[in-house]
Amino acid sequence: MINQFRKLNPVNLVFLLAYTFFLRIAIFQETHDQLNFDFLEPFARLLINIDLDHAFTPYTNIFIAALLVYVQALIFNRVVNNHNLLAKPNFLPGLMFITGTSLFMPFMILSPALLCNFLLIWIIDKFLKLGKSANSITTIFDIGMIIGVGTLIYFPFMAMLLMIFLALLLFRSFNWREWVAGLIGFITVFFFLAVFYYWNDNLSSFYQIWRPLGNKFPSVFKINYNDYLVLIPVTVIMILASLQLRENFFRSFISTRKSFQLLFFMFIISAASFYLKPNFRTWHFLLCVPPGSVLLAYYFSNAKKRWFYETLFVLFVLSIQYFLFV
Questions:
Q1: Is the pLDDT of residue 201 over 90?
Q2: Which residue has the higher pLDDT, 323 or 101?
Q3: Which of 33, 180, 182, 229 is the most buried (most CB within 10 A)?
Q4: Where are its TM segments located (predicted)?
């Protein structure tokens, strides 16, 4: 199966679509109560008051989520190939993206984090272009605005502001205008939100938006480890990918090295940003899927022993299906 997706063959578009729904067999077979879908954070509903909480039946919710994941996978695959992050263009990034978004049941329903992945893929593309542009102030400003829009959808997305400064450190020489541009882009979005609050004589509530920033990082976690055993094969593949990346690190182009460093930091920040949402859900970690998928795709793109990597991937998929059904 991996060898099939190592080729940039148009027929893989059909295989990816079939694979997307194959991984969701378990959730389609379950009996579901009403699945709520919060399209925006409560503080942003003053701007766009659309109630989608009960707009879809459970199966429609799951079906639309699957289609969105498929579209995201294709966009993500194109971004990774355009920036030459792998040995050669292929469909492995899309394959790993779909696999990553199928690890847990909560990943398979409509959620704010799922929508934010469109924005995350967009800013990954813009970040990877920074080293190639002579003047990046406009690009950084755009990234700041995209992060602002993402924050309206899902508040922890604001943590991506840190990625602006990390990206500038990696790809650009210091220019204070670039460092300020991202913040101005982000503030622009919330300036208009503040104006709406002011017009509605509710400016005091606007200040409450920022209260989660004062949360202390939790020191105690209540975790049911049996729910996360599926992450064992993911961890194994990531370790193998890290070893493979380390072996080829200094043979790669400097821009490729910096890109992987950027994606590593993005993975960490995406995972840690859950503390900005006191009542976060498992689907929060969908934000880790795009940067993590590149590392998984890197391993399968560069692995040499076919019997090993094909068997490893089959075991990976079977473990996902097993834990979804069990």
A1: no
A2: 101
A3: 182
A4: 62-80, 92-123, 143-171, 178-199, 228-247, 259-276, 282-300, 307-325
Show the CA angle centred on residue 89, arms to residues 86 and 91, nearest 5°. 95
pLDDT given at position 252: 64
Count Cα neighbours of 294 within 13 Å in the Cβ-side half-sphere. 27
* Residue 130 near residue 167, CB atoms below 8 Å: yes
- C-beta of residue 151 within 8 angstroms of C-beta of residue 157: yes
pLDDT value at residue 183: 93
